[in-house]
UniProtKB/TrEMBL annotation:
This is Cytochrome c biogenesis protein ResB. Residues 1-26, 535-568 are annotated as: Disordered. It is a multi-pass membrane protein. It comes from the Bacteria. The chain crosses the membrane at residues 52-70, 106-125, 198-217, 473-494.
Length: 568
């Protein structure tokens, strides 16, 4: 080896590496160069795979959890502000994660869009494959039908061509797509299984589009209307309003309605005492700016519908009519004050606020506030607490306690009209120094101390609360849901299967009939179906008589009757 020069050593070393059986050492940094197009293809294959689609569905369901548990700005901004005040530590984190606007957040929208693309990328190639399957014919019979899970055979005197023609007629009668391929008839059935699968995925896309469109352009609001009052479909008329992300005021359909009367009757006796029997709002409405007035009775789950906008009857309650006089006897306030029901018997609470026009006994301007508690049917003095015994106006009573001072409405902060903030007010006291309280029947008056005036319970009016909403593409979402259920049912319950019938002359000239079936998935009904087909075909190609004794061995004698679904 010492006589070899450097070049020879290099050549011998290279040849030795080629002859060696040891694994070749490659650099750990070697990475296949896919290029931009290669990486794009890889990413597209991953995105359109079933595994990624399931992961995206799981992430979408996880993303909906904070939207259900945490108050959303699109639903109730006041609840969001209250949550922020109660959870000062979590609020900065939630704001960065957009947990107060989940359904319009960047991360939720990204998951939504990726799932949408994934479904489309899955459906398009599968649709092409399905169309190709519909245009193609069932494949020819395998060489050995005995290997298939459902198999039967018998011998017949009918000619092979006659057997194949009879088999073709039987299979087509059973709605098999069939044709003759060589010495056998090939048939297939159950294409609606794949059609159901495609329908399910397409329906999911329709539902995703409808849901997204509805969330972007929907609106929902509430309005409390007293008997005799009305509503016009403008944003300023709503008590609360929750628009979609891309909603604009121009999308509001012009219409108006007035509450003529509310009719409510209740069960008087029996275990269902107090249950509503009649719950109707009689309204007069008009479409557009100059529409003709029309009458309509709005009931629960029977809304007023105007050009896609629905007006639902949501709730009902009472509004005591009160009048307030100042120390000089001048009436400074008269109004029907809606109160909020607290139970099924419409025990109601609220606040009466006198903002302007009132002067005390010294002539100074101030504000009045009364905490109100109303029962439509009072049990009577000494008969329990102040709770209603029945929802109808059988024995109405209004309980009041009063305050004077500042109501706090000039601070610029939003205030609940049904609650009284007495933090900057002083309570009225009676002669004993206790808080002034009094129960009033219609027509009765509570006199305020020290010549501060009086408040009178004049009567009771009724109100109805309406929910006005517009949900674009709701019909498409419902159609998609129904189609998804139908497609899922088809993909689960329809069985795709193939059947072959081979008829060839045997060694003795008698036709040998073989039938076999193969399901694309496991099915216990396939042998039964093959047996039914064999019985029907057997009526046209009956079993041949037994050959004479000695003409054949026992091992090569066919069965006289078709075996029902013999499984291998």
């Amino acid at each position: 080896m010492s006589n070899l020069n450097t070049t020879d050593e290099r050549e011998i070393g290279t040849a030795g590496e080629q002859l060696s059986t040891a694994p070749r050492e490659e650099s750990a940094t070697t990475v296949p160069a896919l290029g931009v197009i290669g990486w794009a293809r890889w990413f597209w294959r991953q995105l359109t795979s079933m595994r990624v689609a399931l992961i995206l569905l799981f992430l979408l369901s996880l993303g909906a959890i904070p939207g259900s548990l945490i108050p959303q700005n699109s639903v109730d901004e006041m609840k969001v502000e209250a949550f922020k005040g109660d959870h000062t530590t979590l609020t900065p984190l939630y704001e960065k994660l957009q947990f107060f606007d989940v359904y319009s957040s960047v991360w939720f929208s990204a998951i939504y869009i990726l799932l949408f693309i994934s479904l489309i990328g899955c459906i398009v190639p599968r649709t092409g494959q399905f169309v190709g399957q519909l245009r193609s014919r069932p494949p020819g019979a395998p060489k050995k039908l005995t290997r298939l899970p459902a198999y039967t055979t018998w011998r017949t005197e009918a000619e092979p061509e006659q057997v194949r023609e009879a088999a073709l007629a039987v299979l087509r009668k059973r709605r098999f797509r069939s044709h003759t391929a060589g010495d056998a008839v090939a048939a297939e059935k159950g294409y609606l299984r794949e059609a159901g699968n495609l329908l399910f995925h397409i329906a999911l896309i329709v539902m995703l589009i409808a849901f997204g469109w509805g969330q972007l352009f929907k609106f929902e609001g509430g309005k409390l209307v007293l008997e005799g009052d009305g509503f016009s479909n403008t944003r300023t008329q709503y008590d609360d309003f929750r628009p979609g992300t891309l909603f604009t005021d121009e999308d509001l359909v012009p219409f108006s309605f007035g509450l003529d009367a509310f009719e409510g009757t209740y069960e008087r006796t029996g275990p269902q005492r107090g249950t509503p029997r009649t719950f109707e709002a009689h309204v007069t409405y008009s479409e557009g700016v100059d529409g003709k007035p029309k009458k309509k009775v709005v009931q629960v789950n029977k809304p007023l519908v105007v050009d896609g906008t629905k007006v639902y009857l949501n709730a009902h309650g009472y509004a005591p009519v009160v009048s307030v006089k100042d120390g000089r006897g001048k009436e400074v306030y008269r109004n029907a004050v809606p109160l909020l029901p607290q139970d099924d018997n419409i025990t109601s609470t609220g606040a009466i606020k006198v903002l302007d026009g009132y002067r005390d006994a010294n002539g100074e301007k101030t504000q009045l506030g009364f905490q109100a508690f109303f029962v439509p049917t009072f049990a009577g003095n000494g008969k329990g607490t102040m709770f209603s015994q029945f929802p109808a106006l059988d024995y109405p009573v209004l309980a009041l306690n009063g305050f004077h001072g500042s109501l706090g409405v000039d601070s610029g902060l939003p205030q609940n009209v049904y609650q009284l903030d007495p933090s900057k007010m002083e309570m009225f006291k009676d002669g004993s120094g206790n808080q002034l309280k009094q129960r009033l029947r219609p027509g009765e008056t509570m006199t305020l101390p020290d010549g501060a005036g009086s408040i009178t319970f004049e009567g009771v009016e009724e109100w109805a609360s309406f929910q006005i909403s517009r949900q674009p593409a709701a019909g498409w979402a419902l159609t998609g849901a129904v189609a998804a259920i139908a497609g899922l049912a088809g993909s689960l319950f329809i069985q795709r299967r193939r059947v072959w019938v081979r008829a060839v002359p045997g060694p003795d000239g008698v036709t040998v009939v073989e039938m076999a079936g193969l399901g694309r998935s496991e099915s216990a009904k396939l042998p039964e179906e093959l047996a039914d087909l064999a019985v029907e075909l057997h009526t046209q190609a009956p079993t041949a008589p037994e050959p004479e004794s000695g003409t054949g061995t026992e091992s090569d004698q066919p069965s006289e009757e078709p075996a029902e679904g013999a499984e291998k």
